[in-house]
Write a structure and sequence with these properties.
By secondary structure, the chain is an alpha/beta fold. It has a domain at about 60-230: TIM Barrel, CATH 3.20.20. About 45% of the residues lie in helices and about 15% in strands. The chain is built from eleven helices and eight strands. The mean pLDDT is about 95.
Length: about 250
């Protein structure tokens, strides 16, 4: 049985005070639902604080991005080994905002996935289509292409220690959410595509849904057979909302 994973992507949000309040507020919810894995991805500047605050709790954490390089003249970047040294379990890679705002191609995403994994972190590979691609009916082709770039570089076995997050770009921060049936259909296709390379790996990999998940929609989404939790944006910044989502993953 795949365990449900609920991961908060805080993006460029937070203060020292709000981070402390969030972690302290989420600790009871995480403890109350031991069947659910709970993780947060804060801005990198707060990793040291999150490391301290999560000690002794069941809340894991990760980074929102990692650089391709381990060291060198790359101002503003963070090496995967640096993230690992601060206790990170995960690192997002290929989030739609990185692909769009920072022009990260499928090849760049695959290369980052590789160095993240080699550093001992679990890459959370974000894939998904734009509204235009969704309306054109090319969703399956888009996610296959994004997955294939990683498989070609790292092999299907790499997904034994990775998470996939399907995020329809048209549902991120818009308040729009794919219906459970639409989301399940894409998740099932992702798993089927991976199974074409290795059925055992495909059966084990966690596939998260990311796209305006709320406490009200969580249970229905996570109740689908191929949806193994969520990559949560705005709602992860609010203790009550994120706690409801954690509870929804436990049902």
């Amino acid at each position: 049985m795949r365990q449900h994973l609920v991961m908060g992507n805080w993006k460029l949000n937070g203060t020292k005070a709000s981070v402390e309040a969030l972690i302290k507020g989420l600790t009871p919810a995480a403890a109350a639902h031991p069947s659910v894995q709970v993780a947060v991805c804060p801005p990198v500047i707060f990793l040291g604080l999150v490391e301290q605050l999560t000690a002794g709790t069941k809340i894991a954490y990760g980074a929102q991005n990692a650089d391709l390089h381990e060291s060198g003249a790359f101002t503003g970047e963070n090496a995967p080994s640096m993230l690992k040294a601060f206790g990170c379990t995960y690192s997002l890679v290929g989030h739609s905002e990185r692909r769009t705002l920072h022009a990260e191609t499928d090849d760049v995403v695959a290369a980052k996935y590789e160095v993240i994994q080699k550093a001992g972190l679990v890459p959370v590979l974000c894939i998904g289509e734009t509204l235009a691609q969704f309306e054109a009916g090319t969703t399956n082709t888009v996610v296959e292409t994004q997955l294939k770039a990683v498989i070609d570089r790292c092999g299907i076995a790499s997904f034994e220690n990775a998470v996939v997050a399907y995020e329809p770009v048209w549902a991120i921060g818009t308040g729009k959410t794919a219906t459970p049936e639409i989301a399940q259909s894409v998740h099932a296709h992702i798993r089927q595509y991976l199974a074409g390379f290795d059925a055992a790996v495909a059966a084990k990999v966690q596939i998260l849904y990311g796209g305006s998940v709320t406490g009200a929609t969580a249970a229905d989404l996570f109740g689908q057979p191929d949806i193994d939790g969520g990559l949560v944006g705005g709602a992860s910044l609010k203790v009550d909302d994120f706690s409801q989502i954690i509870a929804g993953a436990a049902k």
